Amino acid sequence: MNDDYFADWINQAAAKYCDVVSYNFYPISFERFSPRGLPDVPVMITESTVGHASRGMHGTIVNPGTEPGARLRASARQLESAYRHPQIVGLHHFDFKDEALTGRWDGENYGFGLVDVTDTPYQEFVELNRRAAEELYRFRSSSRKAGLPLP
User: Fold this and answer.
1) Domain boundaries in the chain?
2) CATH of domain 3-141
3) Does 64 score more than 60 pLDDT?
4) What is the percent of the chain with per-residue pLDDT over 70, rounded to a whole number?
5) Which pLDDT value is given to residue 121?
6) Longest C-alpha distance within the chain, in Å?
7) CA separation (Å) from 148 to 51, 84, 88, 103?
8) Burial class (CB in 10 A: 0-12, 13-18, 19+), 129
9) Is the pLDDT of residue 111 over 90?
């Protein structure tokens, strides 16, 4: 991540003129997410993901490993930490489809989609995201400490 994302002067200006401040940010957990100089304003994470290397993809963006269930556990942790964060009001998954093994125009070839390059869903990942969306409001409005349900 570019250090300017967390520069005081950028965050202060954004908070002054924007109703919601947005970041493209890729941690597995948002527990320590605290942009310098940003007051208590709503934050939208407009691009984030948890990738996988289970099908030969070479990109390494937020890749929790190749063992079975690693992506699901990391994704559940990411979603839960975003839900618990008092400033985060939204988290957009990037991207719908895995990138081609040969890469896009700049060579990036990450496995981070809800579907693979043949449009076949990663069913357990889709189900996790669906359950997380269904639980969102109950989770945010309660003080329960239980985690999000895994498939």
Assistant:
1) 3-141
2) 3.20.20.80
3) yes
4) 83
5) 96
6) 46
7) 19, 11, 17, 33
8) middle
9) no
